[in-house]
Amino acid sequence: MMIKFTLNGQLVEVSSDPSRRLLDVLRQDFSLIGVKEGCGEGECGACSILFNHHVVNSCLLPLGNVMNQDIITIEGFKTTARYQAIEQAYIDAGAVQCGFCTPGMVMATESLLHLNPTPTDAEIRIALSGNLCRCTGYNMIVEAVKLASERGKGLW
Amino acid sequence: MHHIPQTLDEALEILNNRHYQVIAGGTDIMVQYRSWSETLPKLNKPLLFVSQIPELNFINESDEFIEIGACTTYEHLLNSPIIPKILKDTIIDIAAPGIRYVGTIGGNIANASPAADGVCTLIALDALVEIVSSETFRIEKICDFITGVKTTSLKPNELIRSIRIPNMFHEHARFYKIGGRKADAISKVALASVCNVSEGRITKWRLAFGAVGPKVVSLPLIDEKMVGKTVEELKETIESIQATYAPFIKPIDDQRSTAVYRKEVALNLIKGFIESL
Known about the structure:
heterodimer, A: alpha+beta, Ubiquitin-like (UB roll), DNA polymerase, domain 1, 2 domains, 6 helices, B: alpha+beta, 5-stranded antiparallel beta sheet, 4-stranded antiparallel beta sheet, 32% helix
């Protein structure tokens, strides 16, 4: 079946089975390997992408549900000023260790700040609650989101 | 052959031809049928995609009901001013933002998990399910619609069109969830509890327990016995109230918890709710 959607700002068409996971379509058909597979069942958030600018687990999204929708991956997001602010904040807060969860964490961060540019600690923890990190213990990531929010005034 | 219909009529027409697995947000189905990484899910029926059908995406309010289209997502409900607080409190405890953005209320009901938090609260609120096919229309209480573990009264040619919640104010309405962590946890035990008091006496009392039986445990005949009592009487007879519910709370051991733990906690939640009044 032919499925059209917007991927990182460009209209794309994929001729494929609509039951395929968006995660596989992004990695196999578009070589967007910043989208990681961790658990494959919606628990870890490593495969997070922006679906109509809201964080969603791409391992749970069948291609059929993406028809005519807007998808942004870490590769599309990294060209933006918002990404630059988030990246520098993650570096400065020591929020990246092995890096496997980082693309998903960045997607969840953007999804939060887009809706709520000045979140509280509790709001940050809820926003990141679908993303697991095996290295940092989370406090540095929460710090990074706060730092991005403070430094990025006007970006969101 | 999978289908992505654009309208409700088209979807119902397709359902008349053969059996489909209806898929809304996909957050349960994509896990249930998942196969190896980079391969297609192992389905036994073709998929009918309904999440983008406009007639299934709405929230309406009348004097009588709050009506929610079956494919309305949990995130959408959280942002609506007309959704009752207890349902929002429940939704906040379901999954995480990325799943709530695509997971739907109709999907949660049709999936009929005994541990479905949303179903628990909808039963405590006496919600109704509106079911349509190309020729028929029926309304069923949600507690009757769900018939057992993962089973419902939905026929192969039917879809859930909407969920109707009686539009009433509840003085005390609380959702309690016990899970392994705050986010992304499937309940070990859950309780949705609703109580109204007028002139010191209980006028409405509803408890619905999740994850302690093959379906959400709802006991209207026992609930009815609390009506007419004073809050003080309830507080003085907590143990006997727990004993009235106890025989009907029959949990099992599974990967998430044990029967003994679940039963004790379910009874403690009754106590917690009564003490909070």
